[in-house]
Amino acid sequence: MTDETRELIWRTVARIPPGQVATYGQVAREAGLGRRARMVGRALRSLPPGSDVPWHRVVNARGEISLPASGDSGQEQRRRLQAEGIVFSDGRIDLDRFRWQPSLDELLWGPPDP
């Protein structure tokens, strides 16, 4: 993966507002990468320590945290999402309720300039 692609994914994730989530596949599509959901996961794993990219707002297609629940990162992701008002039911997020929906302007004209 090129640095340009990695940064494109990070910029896309940075657009997800607090209190909303996106799936790996949704981020890939929004970034113009088609069905490359796994690439999104790799890009998020390569975030530098202390990054302000809201990695915790990206979940799998079932509305679940993909990181191991017993690990520190999985627990941290859940804490951050709950602090933003995201509700879990049986370990899942209701994507109909909490999924990020880009604005019509973003859909028509693309993301705002950084």
Question: What tags apply to this protein structure?
Answer:
mainly alpha, two-stranded antiparallel ribbon, 6 helices, 44% helix, 114 residues, Arc Repressor Mutant, subunit A
Summarize the structure.
This protein has 114 residues and is mainly alpha-helical. The protein has helices spanning 3-14, 24-30, 37-45, 72-83, 95-98, 104-109, and strands spanning 22-23, 58-59, 88-89, 92-93.
Q: Which consecutive residue ranges, at least 5 long each, have pLDDT under 50? A: none
With helices defined by DSSP (H or I, 4 residues minimum), what is the helix count?
6
Q: Would you give the CATH topology?
A: Arc Repressor Mutant, subunit A
Q: How do the SSEs run, as a string of H and E? A: HEHHEHEEHH
How much helicity do the residues have? 40-55%
Tell me the radius of gyration: 13 Å
CATH top level is: Mainly Alpha
Termini separation (Å)? Answer: 22 Å
What is the typical, i.e. mean, pLDDT? Answer: 92
Q: How much strand?
A: 5-15%
Strands of the widest sheet, in order across it, are: 1-2
Shape: globular
Q: Which CATH architecture would you pick?
A: Orthogonal Bundle
β-strand number = 4
Summing up helix and strand content along with how strands pair, one would put the structural category as: mainly alpha
What is the fourth-level CATH superfamily? Winged helix-like DNA-binding domain superfamily/Winged helix DNA-binding domain
- How would a crystallographer describe the biggest sheet? 2 strands, parallel
